[in-house]
Amino acid sequence: MGEFEVIQRYFANSGRHRSDTLLGVGDDGAVLQLRDGYDLVVTTDTMVAGTHFFPDVDPRALGHKLVAVNISDLAAMGAEPAWLSLAMTLPKVDDEWIKAFAAAFSETADYYNCQLVGGDTTRGPLTLSVVAKGQVPRGKMLSRSGAKVGDYVYVTGTLGDAALGLRLCQGQVEVSKKHSAHILQRFHYPTARVALGQALRTTASSAMDLSDGLYSDIQHLLRRSQVGVSLDIDKLPLSQALRDSCDHTTAIALALSGGEDYELLFTVPENKRGTLDVLLSPYGVPVTCIGRITGVAGKLELKAGNQPFAYEHHGFEHFV
């Protein structure tokens, strides 16, 4: 099967058909119609075999994750997902592998109301890149640069589960049958908090998604906002599965630096905290306050209760 046959057979109608896609797969470029009063949000992510995923990973899990991690970036900016472009570098044409990957990619894109509108296919080491595009009402985007001194810091969901899932896949830990399905689900099939991100447009002062670990990721927000932060590790949201599967020290390390959470981290001014619970209650996603923004730019302070907490681990970073 050649490049164009692969595209036509598996990707020509991937995801949901959108009326604002004037031209999609099949032309030299896509033509997309942006709604009046909206801005375009664009994000790009690349996943490389052996670096971001195991070469023998279930292609359905990979298809899901590739879409979800890119949509998570749009969610962090309060955007409505709309279009995806996919560039695939494949070592060979494996019909069954591509069929399973493409099916999961399309199902996940459809779930988030996205349409695949273009991309490229080449030969080489297995590498997958997605450009995700979304729309946000003009002037309503969330960014990493809006946090102010005194704002409260929140995270959605729980932290550390996906990192434990990675260790389980690597054979580094044992997890009870009771919890293994949850842990592996969190690692292989992350959920982008799209609706919640859009709800935060009127409340959050800044936001980002967590991909490389809380400890590492939040420092990007501190740099962009020129603020510091004090985090209480006793308030980190840890699932029962994580608590039952490892000791407390390991659980905290996974929550701080494990990565792959794809939860939202956001800040809220004190005068808007009262409306937060009411605003987010329809979404059924737990939200936890884990700290507060401080005035010393770039300073990340960890504490356990009222005591300083020493920590030397860091999140994932390429080229280090």
UniProtKB/TrEMBL annotation:
InterPro entries in alphabetical order: PurM-like_C_dom, PurM-like_C_sf, PurM-like_N, PurM-like_N_sf, ThiL-like
Binding site for Mg(2+) 3: D28, D73, D209
Keyword terms, alphabetized: ATP-binding, Kinase, Magnesium, Metal-binding, Nucleotide-binding, Thiamine biosynthesis, Transferase
Presence of keyword Magnesium: yes
PurM-like C-terminal domain boundaries: 148-296
Broad class of enzyme this protein falls into: transferase
Catalytic activity, as annotated: thiamine phosphate + ATP = thiamine diphosphate + ADP
Residue sites binding Mg(2+) 2 per the record: D45, D73
Residues given in the record as substrate binding sites: H52, E260, F316
Misc: Reaction mechanism of ThiL seems to utilize a direct, inline transfer of the gamma-phosphate of ATP to TMP rather than a phosphorylated enzyme intermediate.
Record family assignment: Belongs to the thiamine-monophosphate kinase family.
General function of this protein: Catalyzes the ATP-dependent phosphorylation of thiamine-monophosphate (TMP) to form thiamine-pyrophosphate (TPP), the active form of vitamin B1.
Name recorded for this polypeptide: Thiamine-monophosphate kinase
Organism of this sequence: Alkalimonas collagenimarina
